From TrEMBL:
Its cofactor is FAD. The lineage of its organism: Bacteria, Bacillati, Actinomycetota, Actinomycetes, Kitasatosporales. PANTHER family: ACYL-COA DEHYDROGENASE, ACYL-COA DEHYDROGENASE FADE28. GO terms for molecular function: acyl-CoA dehydrogenase activity; flavin adenine dinucleotide binding. Residues 6-117 form the Acyl-CoA dehydrogenase/oxidase N-terminal domain. It comes from the Bacteria. Belongs to the acyl-CoA dehydrogenase family. InterPro entries: Acyl-CoA_Oxase/DH_mid-dom_sf, AcylCo_DH-like_C, AcylCo_DH/oxidase_C, AcylCoA_DH/ox_N, AcylCoA_DH/ox_N_sf, AcylCoA_DH/oxidase_NM_dom_sf. This is Acyl-CoA dehydrogenase. Residues 254-377 form the Acyl-CoA dehydrogenase/oxidase C-terminal domain. Pfam families: Acyl-CoA_dh_1, Acyl-CoA_dh_N.
Amino acid sequence: MDASFTPEQDEIRRTLRELLRQRRGREPRTAVDTPAGYDPALWTALAEQLGLPGLALSEAYGGVGCSVTELALACEEVGRALCPSPLLGTAVLAAPLIAALGTEAQRAGLLPRLASGALTATLAVPGTALATALALTGANGGDWAGGGRAGGVQARRVQGGWRLYGQADQVLDGHSAGLLVVAAHTGGFARSRTLLFLVPGDAAGVVRVRQTALDATRSQARLQLREAEAELLGEENGRDVLAALAAVGAGAAAVLACEAVGAADRALEQTVEYVRQREQFGRAIGSFQAVKHRLADVYVGVQAARSAAYYAAWAVPHGERVGGLALAQALEALRTASAEGIQLHGGIGFTWEHQAHLYFKRAAGDELLFGPVHRLRAHAADTARLFETSERREVAV
């Protein structure tokens, strides 16, 4: 592994940081209060000036032709600014699934629009099973999509297409996405299986309600499907849907890890700036040894998480799936950095007006969405068969 960045990767990071810095005066909370939940003008700039939505898409479909690595590095800068945008749902979740499973007609019709930013999309899974569907906290072969039982999202074939019925409760940008990639159960109990379907956001039978989320910078919605018309993504007997979801989950974990590292780094940076200015007993509180020790521990944690996140981003194109472990490390670093930031900011750190609480909520919100740290680590250990005895390994083989 070459740990140095290429000139192209450095340019992506530099240009994106500069663009976000120019708009730093626009608080994240200002953007989340808009009907879309993000700044449409900024999204247009990210798409037109940087090609961010299509960064990891093939040039044949209007993308830039980079890999998940470049997308993850870009998301580190997005995480630093806590920039609300439909990037995660569009470029990290929906687009890779369409590219992997879609027919040629579906790819040609949808991917160029996603790459240009003209169309936003997201992944909708039943209930609160996003981490399960992406195989981040365990195998995704269970009954999370319905499993032949009541609940979940059910799909039935009708003349000329499919109809979906059910509910998804934690759909990222679900209230504003132009396209929904919906995971639904079909086949009844005897022939149970999960398929993915394409549903326009404004289709008849689709009811979308924006939810009040812990992390306001990640908009979420409840999605109700009432006999909504849907188009099957790909062929019915095509590539394994669960395997495709797991592959997308591996890439998403690496992207989220880099994003969390960016947020943790910025939370630490803000805290260091503050303790250099805040005076107590006639001197800056940053000069006290106890404060230095606490911030040194945070710095070590952030740097360790950054190394893990960068390796995970590099590993995705090389077929290694270590994103879950890197995500656990990054979320823990973000939680620690944001909590110490609130403490060391003192009284102002607890106020609604200050940004410190936004970073803490990002850490807590991501754990709720993508799996708590201990479960991410437990799944990584199970996958590596870390705690199996030699006898059990021999039996498994």
